[in-house]
Amino acid sequence: PQVLLLDEPTASLDAESAKRVRTAALDARDRLGTTLVVVSHDIRWLTEVSDMVLAMEGGRIATPGA
Hints:
Elements: E1 3-7, H1 15-32, E2 35-39, H2 43-49, E3 55-57, E4 60-63
Parallel strand pairs: 1-2
Antiparallel strand pairs: 3-4
């Protein structure tokens, strides 16, 4: 796919399953050039793999991307 929209893709998963989801998403990005749009509370993972991180508050962008 050209774009994957992932809404809390690792929420409620055990550590091994979350790792598999992350690996698959990053593999699609790296091998296929897929753009990932991820909504997540896992700030650590987002900052490790993202080109840009936006924070939202009250439906508005609260913090410019990193």
